[in-house]
Write a structure and sequence with these properties.
The chain is α+β, with helices and mostly antiparallel strands and 362 residues long. 41% of the residues lie in helices and 19% in strands.
Length: 362
Amino acid sequence: MNKPKRLRMYKWLAGVLVVLLLAGTAGYYNRNALAMWGFDLFLSDSVKKKLENSYKPLEGRDPSPTTYKKEEPFSMLLLGVDQRDKEIGRSDTMIYTVVRPKDGAILMVSIPRDTYVDIVGKTTKAGNQWQDKITHAYAFGGAKMSVETVEKLFGSKVDHYATINFTGFRDVIDAMGGISLPITEDLVNDDPEHEKFVVKAGKPLYNGTEALNYVRYREDAGGDTSRAGRHQVFLNAIMNKASQVGQWTKIPELIDIMGQNFKADLTPQHMIDLTKSMLQSDQRTIYSHTLKGEGRRKVTHGAWYYFANEEDLAKTTALIKAWLDPAKTKETLPLPEEYEQKEQKPVQSLSLAESKRTAEKK
């Protein structure tokens, strides 16, 4: 090869190396953007097709025509259903969520599963309003009854809903290689009336079974309130893992794994737009609150319920209304008294014996 040709080839190779170096550097600093670009280019149509099986509007209700752009705030009820085998299941997790696309801010209000409420759409034999644990709304009337019961509780509309069977998460978490959970002490579920398991503290990653047991753990001193907080940590941990480099290529596989375990009234395109925005962690700010109250047995029949604190319920209702107000900016939004922003607080755990001693001291 003569000298001019060799020189031209070297210049061409040098140019290619520079382009690759720049692309690699840009990829490192903008990996979320590149991942989303790759998703749009190679996977968007496939995912949209797979999500068609998950689209399920509620009978008798027209979902709000939301498109996930920099537009109006909207509300969404997240229902985590612990359904095993062929049982109907109950909504162990109920989170009233306000999404503010323009601000990149999300408010998540957890409703403890045993909260005593009016169950909308169900009456007694005498025709009176049925009152029960809010978790039973799903068992009585599915997502529709849950949505309408929550609307009455907070006096605000639920624009959309999504139900997720927690059992379906087990294989999803395993397919992602496990998730990180802030467990500082062993979770020991050993009450005679409960499912038996131990989740060890301090592990870098937890597999699907361990993560599911983390959600189901019931024996710490905080009771229903602590459990609701763990559900929020669990969902945020999954979003954090899904946003990591390389995870987006697994999205079609994860949707296949979820199968019939996931239903929502967001159209596939809306769901894709929403998920892409939420997975870009630098744009996601989550504020969390759990409805305050106290647990006690009802005198009339001795069943255990969680009674919402009326003052906190009023504050939470006002908080939701403010977050749904499109005229407010992120800087003027009221915040819950106790909230988590971006990073989760460590989860403290007590053994059953320690929990009982703590309860006795109170």
